[in-house]
Design goal:
The complex is a heterodimer of chains A (588) and B (693). Chain A is an alpha+beta fold and 588 residues long. Chain A has 13 helices and 20 strands. Chain A is 30% helix and 23% strand. Chain A is globular. Chain B is of the alpha+beta class. Among the domains of chain B are: 136 residues, Rossmann fold; 115 residues, Dna Ligase, domain 1, CATH 3.30.1490.
């Protein structure tokens, strides 16, 4: 219903176009979820879908996963650049390689250029974590890889559909190199379905409004997002330079904890972020720059707390210096990297958030749990077929508290996903993999104490149904609890850490505190626990009645209430002892 | 003369519709009474009795059928006023309703103030039971009765009103749940008990447990309400039967709902599509897009081949429910939906709503934010002085003021342009909602007629139809009370479900046939004793199907009658086609698999032939007035004729632009469109292919 009085980008058309872009992105996501095969696609939602314009600039990102916030932006540009003029209607590009700005090789991406009136107008892009990308270890988290070549199949930008014709030879090449072929073929179809759904809708949009109007709307949406971020920087961050350092814990390489640093300069309505990091390791926790950008953008969003939808304009006022090539945060070939979208991305997010929290403590966020995951593999007891399962329930942990705003969510992390992942229904998981989930429970005392408390993590207990299963544990969070804000601190630390335990006859035969792989036999169990989220503010400032509520609701033990919050609760009556509480709090 | 009465209790109004034997439809609206719902119902019946010219008692004695759409169950959930409920779960799985799959709902990723949903059962009332069944129905840990009895005793101390029991894989081996139910019954004889194997015997522990918990939570309150209603009516001479609209779009008896109260959660909105279907079928249409625009939302539902689209799993008020519900796509574009310019400077309409209180700014009840209704007032679609046929005064200058302050000013455009923008954006959101309900589920909206309900639904309907290429819109004179009409006209329905995991090529047709027959008998038995005027039984079968290795399914209609290999081949074809419709592709070299099967037994009502609507409108000026209206895309206002409903001549169509005012609805006939009066209390709006422009 355009009329002549309006300019090309009247505010109404703009709002309608943005609405269509959002609905299109949601349709992509629902297609992936409903048609996917592997549990990561169909029940865990470990993927992100995005729309790009002709440049390509990211014009709409949904709410899928924070860990894909930056990597999709860089990857789409790299793929478009690689093909240059060789981008044609009906093409679908494919890629996973971090050397072409992919995040990690298990995130397989599809890129569908969408044309209107013979012009390239949009790209529909889908990034999904596949169950396996080849290499020696099921699931492709190979902690022994010294180089990327030992991690799995690298796919530089290629076409899997060429002007409407599926390149079965190329698809076959990919599927031949990965485990769980049948599932992966199905997941590829799901992803193709998603980008095709987007094409259907966006072509209609272009027909209705015409290419010039759509282009003008895109420019306007980018500009307005930019203006919003500029106003947030100007209003909430005083000019100056803010520095922060965080620890990237040694999760098994043996070279000790590494320190990552940043210096953020606020200049009116712009930010300049400089990163400093040690040399890359011959261990899979290096982050190539597009994954690093995801960490940076996630840290920015924890500060900005912008409402959806999101586009690349938000990041225009932000300048980034990744530092020299060949570091842990700006890794270069042949650095191994597969673990990067979990702990490393989350640690980068912590780094940026910590620096910005110094500039503005109002509504400052604590950290969420860091990814600590188990991949499982084995042979089906009946068919003998090999199976691989990424147990997303093991990743899910506690959300961070937010100063002056809210307690953290229980079981909503990790920081890489912030509620975007799903554990998967326990019965569906047992249908997909020959395992028994004996326990999926909220872990008491795992939450970081504070005036605003973090959320609790989860404990998951698994037993194989077949002869045995291989447990591949990866991630971090077993040495230090999640970062809190302000005077938040934990006194009872152990329950707040990530852990794994191998049980035989109910006895712990191995406590797992770093990346590793173990065989768990029939009758034995593996228990994995995620971290709780960080707290905000002094726990002694938390209202005793609120602490009591947490005790009654089994999130905080009587002992932790006394030690960490200075609140004395009678273990029998579950009532507060006022005098003892006053005394404990006075003693500090 | 006998009557069937449909009653829809909303948050603000209780709508009543009486359909008489002779087909005359009467409508009455009274304010709802949240504390004493039966009171509002009796007041409403008194209003209908007065229209008919009978004393209340005599009128009630003539009502052979009273059907209620109730929000009692939904409100118990929304307002957290349900029973004090406990959960007995397999040890190690007590937390699943608090973990909620580890997911935070979309729309709030970076909104850290968005709170988690409070579990309906707190941790200290979720107690473990030592037992474990595996996926293949083998018992891994036998039920430890002593320990279970101990957990039950612990509940006694907590004085709970309801107990939900949900064990892992219980539907594969229901004995453990049943035994524990006996223990609960012995220890807590007054408690409402809900077993997951009864409520939802299919795979999906989180959904099954959550549904069972919701069932227990709303059970006692809904049961008390239904008994109160029945008693109130019987005391006043009622001899017929009371039925309730269920979420699945069919009627349920009190005894069905006492066992499965969760089936009443979607009771209200489910009636919209049912009404739409009844009206459209008068003209021979079985494919209908039903739209209903209320104060807070715009609800869309698709009816295909005479059956409302039903969804098997949905979050209601943030709680997962796995029983079939009419698949209503609800968009935040109701009359009270708020327009604002967001932080990035882009206009948004909804989902935030001014609801009934304070309502739109023009109501003058303290609303300070512009709503869709305010925009309609500014543009002239609605009168500037009063709504509801003059019964509700409004102040149009307030609408102008808030639109200026909140939208026009920030965007730097005129108030008129801002109001046009709000209407256009609301319409665009509605179009997206209709697309979600149709195209996104594999249906072309151009193959459907639209039926528009709600006060402002008929104002927007023409715009939406033009945009989507829908040629015919039907608008009932009772548009403002379409749900109550749907309740009066609905069929009885019972849904049965069975878990049935098998590759299609392994399915023995006779075996499947036997299961379907069993479920159909179950449904027929549940509906026995129905006193409705029977128009025959209709049976619908469906299967949840997917490709081998897929996890989610789509539902595919299963041929009725005896199943042979040929019907299974048809089923295979239908599944491939459905998958392609929904997701752009199918995999013909892959094997389809069944997950569960469903049978619905529908007892059809004989419908009276609707003759005309006995209007309750206050007498109006004899001549048509005009209003200056700013039409979509127009630069200038034009004087548009405004006709009172009863003055619209039946012999010739009304050409657009025109406005037709019914007491509870405003119909906009846009330029190029025409509206004609049909004999059944309906208007037909004809939308030319070219659209409104």
């Amino acid at each position: 219903m355009a009329d002549s009085r309006r300019t090309e980008v009247d505010p109404i058309t703009l709002a309608v176009v943005q609405g269509v872009l959002s609905a299109t992105q949601r349709a992509m996501t629902s297609t992936m979820e409903m048609t996917g095969r592997s549990s990561v696609y169909a029940i865990a939602r470990d993927y992100s879908n995005c729309l790009f314009d002709w440049e390509p600039r990211m014009i709409l990102q949904g709410e899928d996963l924070p860990t894909h916030l930056g990597s999709l932006i860089m990857a789409t540009k790299a793929v478009a650049e690689f093909f240059g003029g060789d981008v044609r209607p009906g093409d679908v590009m494919f890629h996973n390689d971090p050397a072409y700005d992919g995040s990690h090789i298990v995130d397989m991406c599809m890129y569908k250029p969408i044309f209107a009136d013979g012009e390239l107008l949009f790209w529909a892009v889908s990034k999904g974590h596949v169950i396996d990308a080849g290499g020696p270890v099921p699931g492709s988290y190979n902690r022994d890889a010294k180089e990327i070549y030992a991690e799995g199949l690298r796919i530089p930008p290629i076409k899997i559909v060429d002007r409407g014709v599926r390149r079965e030879d190329v698809i076959n090449l990919i599927l031949t190199n990965v485990r769980s072929r049948r599932d992966q073929a199905g997941d590829m179809n799901a992803q193709l379905g998603a980008v095709t759904v987007a094409e259907r809708r966006l072509t209609e949009l272009a027909t209705k409004y015409g290419v010039p109007v759509v282009r003008a709307c895109v420019e306007q949406l980018l500009d307005q997002a930019e203006a919003h971020m500029r106003s947030l920087i100007r209003e909430r961050l005083p000019n100056g330079t803010y520095r922060a350092s965080v620890i990237a814990e040694d999760t098994g390489h043996g070279r000790g904890d590494q320190t990552l640093s940043t210096e953020i300069t606020v200049d009116d309505d712009e930010l300049t972020i400089r990163l400093e990091a040690p040399e890359q390791l011959d261990y899979y926790t290096n982050s190539y720059r597009s994954n690093t950008l995801s960490g940076i953008n996630a840290g920015l969003m924890m500060f900005a707390q912008v409402q959806p939808p999101y586009n690349e304009g938000l990041y225009r006022p932000v300048h980034i210096d990744f530092g020299p090539s060949g570091t842990m945060l700006n890794a270069a070939e042949p650095a191994p990297h597969v673990n990067c979208t979990g702990g490393p991305q989350e640690t980068i997010c912590d780094l940026i958030r910590e620096a910005l929290n110094q500039a503005d403590m109002s509504s400052a966020s604590a950290g969420w749990n860091h990814t600590w995951c188990v991949n499982l593999a084995g042979e089906h007891p009946e068919t003998g077929e090999s199976w691989v399962e990424i147990l997303i329930a093991s990743i899910v942990g506690g959300g961070g508290a937010v100063m002056g705003v809210a307690d953290g969510w229980h079981s909503a992390g990790a920081q890489a996903s912030m509620g975007g992942l799903k554990t998967g229904d326990s019965e569906l998981v047992e249908l997909l993999a020959p395992i028994v989930l004996h326990r999926v429970e909220i872990a008491k005392d795992s939450a970081g104490p504070g005036t605003w408390r973090g959320g609790c993590g989860l404990t998951v207990e698994i037993e194989p149904i077949g002869e045995e299963m291989t447990v591949i544990a990866w991630g971090e969070g077993s040495k230090y609890p999640v970062l809190g804000v302000g005077d938040a601190h934990a006194k009872i630390v152990e329950p707040k850490l990530a852990r794994g335990w191998h049980l035989r006859d109910g006895e712990v035969v191995r406590e797992v505190t770093e990346n590793g792989s173990f065989v768990v036999r029939r009758g034995e169990r593996y228990v994995t626990r995620s971290q709780g989220g960080g707290g905000a503010g002094d726990p002694f400032e938390r209202a005793p009645a609120t602490v009591l509520h947490d005790v009654r609701h089994q999130k905080v033990s009587v002992e932790a209430a006394r030690v960490e919050y200075g609140v004395a609760v009678d273990p029998e009556t579950l009532e507060i002892d006022e005098d003892a509480t006053r005394a404990a709090r006075a003693a500090g | 003369m006998t009557y069937r009465v449909g009653i829809d209790s909303g948050g603000t109004f209780t709508d009543l519709v009486a359909i008489a034997d002779d087909g005359v439809v009467r409508l009455h609206k009274v304010p709802s009474n949240r504390e004493a719902p039966a009171q509002a119902l009796l007041e409403g019946l008194a209003g209908l009795a007065e229209q008919v010219g009978l004393p209340l008692r005599a009128f009630i004695a003539d009502c052979e059928l009273v059907v209620l759409g109730t929000t009692v169950a939904l409100n118990a959930l929304l307002q957290r006023r349900g029973a004090k409920t406990a959960l007995l779960a397999t040890e190690g799985h007590e937390d699943s309703i608090e973990i909620r799959l580890g997911h935070k709902e979309d729309g709030h990723r970076w909104d850290f103030s968005f709170p988690p949903a409070t579990p309906l059962v707190p941790a200290y009332l979720r107690l473990p039971v030592h037992e474990r069944v595996l996926a293949d129905a083998t018992v891994y840990t036998p039920l430890d009765e002593e320990q279970a009895a101990q957990s039950v005793r612990a509940l006694k101390e907590h004085d709970v009103d309801a107990v939900a029991v949900s064990f892992m894989w219980s539907f594969q081996h229901p004995e453990h749940e049943r035994r524990v139910a006996e223990l609960v019954r012995q220890a807590l004889p007054e408690c409402y008990i809900s077993l997951s194997t009864d409520v939802l015997p299919r795979v999906g522990e989180y959904t099954r447990t959550s549904t069972t918990v919701v069932n227990a939570y709303v059970g006692p309150r809904l049961t008390a309400y239904m008994r109160d209603i029945e008693q109130s009516l019987v005391q006043r001479g009622f001899r017929g039967t009371v039925y309730y609209m269920q979420s699945n779009g069919g009627l349920g008896t009190q005894s069905i709902l006492e066992r499965r109260p969760v089936a009443a959660l979607g009771s209200g909105p489910a009636a919209g599509p049912v009404a739409a279907l009844q009206l459209a079928s008068l003209l021979g249409h079985e494919n209908v897009i039903s739209i209903d625009m209320g104060g807070t939302s715009f609800d869309v539902c698709l009816v295909k081949d005479g059956l409302p689209d039903v969804v098997a799993e949905v979050d209601v008020a943030r709680y997962r429910v796995g029983l079939p519900m009419v698949n209503v796509e609800s968009i935040g574009a109701g009359g009270g939906s708020i327009a604002r310019v967001d932080e990035k400077g882009v206009l948004q309409v909804g989902p935030e709503s001014a609801e009934a209180d304070p309502g739109p700014a023009c109501y003058g009840r303290g609303g300070t934010r512009p709503t869709v209704t305010d925009a309609l007032v500014v543009l002239g679609y609605l009168p500037s002085d009063a709504l509801l046929g003059g019964r509700m005064p409004i102040e149009s200058e307030r609408s102008v003021h808030v639109i200026e302050a909140e939208v026009a000013g920030p965007l730097g455009i005129s108030v008129d342009a801002a109001a046009q923008g709000i209407v256009e954006l609301a319409a665009a959101n509605m179009v997206e909602g209709i697309r979600m309900a149709s195209i996104q589920r594999g249906h072309d909206p151009r193959d459907f007629v639209m039926v528009a309900g709600g006060g402002a639904g008929p104002t927007f309907a023409g715009l939406l139809a033009a945009e989507l290429g829908i040629g015919t819109v039907l608008i009932p004179k009772v548009a403002g009370a379409m749900c109550a009409f749907g309740e009066a006209a609905a069929d009885l329905r019972y849904d049965a479900v069975r878990s049935y995991a098998a590759r299609l090529s392994d399915v023995e047709p006779a075996d499947l046939d036997g299961l379907f027959s069993q479920m159909e008998r179950e449904g027929e038995e549940a509906l026995v004793g129905a006193t409705l005027t029977e128009g025959g039984v209709r049976v619908e079968r469906a299967a949840d199907m997917k490709y081998v290795d897929q996890i989610h399914h789509c539902d595919v209609p299963v041929p009725t009658g005896t199943l042979t290999d040929s019907e299974l081949a048809t089923l295979r074809e239908r599944f491939h086609a459905r998958h392609a419709q929904l997701y752009t592709y199918c995999e013909r070299d892959n094997e389809p698999e069944l997950l569960s099967i469903r049978a619905s037994v529908i007892l059809k009502q004989v419908q009276p032939t609707l003759t005309s609507s006995g209007s309750t409108d206050a007498p109006r000026a004899a001549t048509a007035t005009t209003r200056a209206i700013l039409l979509p895309g127009a630069l200038e206002r034009v004087d548009v004729p405004v006709l009172a409903g009863e003055r619209v001549p039946s012999e010739q169509p009304v050409e657009g632009p025109a406005i037709i005012e019914e007491e509870t609805a405003t119909i906009a006939v846009f330029p190029g469109m025409s509206a004609s009066v049909l004999p059944h209390g309906l208007y037909r709006l004809t939308v030319p292919e070219a659209g409104v422009r």
